[in-house]
Design brief:
By secondary structure, the chain is mostly helical. The chain has helices at residues 3-12, 16-37, 41-57, 68-89, 115-129, 133-144, 149-156, 160-178.
């Protein structure tokens, strides 16, 4: 049993210390991911709070997830989508733009001092920004959250083979856009 499995079991058995560890371990990841689903920071915060309240109130009946981060991300996405749908039905939200998965890839730490490197990074940002929200979400889950294809498929209601094919197509598309542009002269 690994460390987080022990913490999860302790949490299910009523340990507030274990609950706190889970919260502080994943709060930033959940907030970042939720902020990609909707721009409304209050909705993200409310939904994260709801997620942890639901976890706490039903802790004795929860399954033992193979990957806790995946489990929490999937649960948060479900809660956010449910909340946005309810808000739209009640006329509180302007439209479906709330669902547009928006990711701003943070390359500030990666940018070198040379202008050539800055130019390359700007090109990469521009190309990534031009991707559809679904493609951005696939890349985020695969390369930032480091989820496996079957986990991504479960989150996005796709088949694992479709996830693999889509990621391959996205990377091929990026490669074509960059062909020759990143070659050192």
């Amino acid at each position: 049993m690994d460390y987080w499995e022990i913490i999860w079991n302790d949490f299910k058995n009523g340990s507030s210390h274990a609950f706190e560890k889970i919260y502080y371990k994943y709060i930033d990841v959940l907030y970042r991911y939720g902020s990609k689903i909707t721009h409304d920071k209050d909705i993200v915060k409310d939904c994260i709070q709801q997620l942890f309240l639901e976890l706490y109130s039903s802790r004795k009946n929860l399954a033992n997830p193979k990957n806790l981060e995946f489990y929490l991300l999937k649960a948060l996405k479900r809660i956010i989508i449910h909340r946005i749908n309810n808000d739209m039905k009640q006329g509180h939200l302007p439209g479906t733009d709330s669902f547009a998965f928006n990711v701003e890839f943070d390359f500030d730490d990666e940018i070198s001092k040379s202008e050539r490197q800055e130019s390359k990074m700007q090109l990469l940002k521009d190309v990534l920004h031009s991707l559809s929200s679904k493609k951005k979400e696939l890349l985020f889950l695969k390369f930032y959250s480091e989820l496996k294809n079957d986990q991504i498929a479960s989150m996005l209601d796709m088949k694992p083979a479709t996830v693999q094919k889509q990621i391959y197509r996205i990377l091929t598309q990026l490669q074509v856009k960059f062909q020759g542009r990143f070659m050192e002269s």
